[in-house]
Design brief:
The protein is α+β, with helices and mostly antiparallel strands and 124 residues long. Helix content is 19%, strand content 46%. Strands 1-7-6-3 form a 4-stranded mixed beta sheet, with no helix packed on it. A 3-stranded antiparallel beta sheet has the order 2-5-4, with no helix packed on it.
Amino acid sequence: MTSARFHTSVACVFLLPVLVLLQSCTESASVETVSVSLKSAETFQYPTVSGDEEGARISIQPRHSSTSEIRRNAATNWIATFVYQPTAGFVGADDAALEVMTGSDGASPPMNVKTIVFHFDVHN
């Protein structure tokens, strides 16, 4: 059983970058990279889109977070906002990715998908 878990983990490690690369090769997709430096006790917020037909989702979860979510409520003025807070005491590098979908007319799926990749440098 341990061997099967190991092989599954190894396959995921090698397939994830391939999937990200294939996804970034589509014509309607664009990629933005955001580098963030923050203290281990800080919370980072990144507003994305606000329209009723627009949306955002986390496509790659950070590995060292106590909070990693999209909030869209009165506190964010109904803007889909990515909220990240590192695990207490964590210092080092962490990464996450979002997909931001726009261009829907309400009857069809979004026409544009933008990927935002976050590189976090968490320090004391």
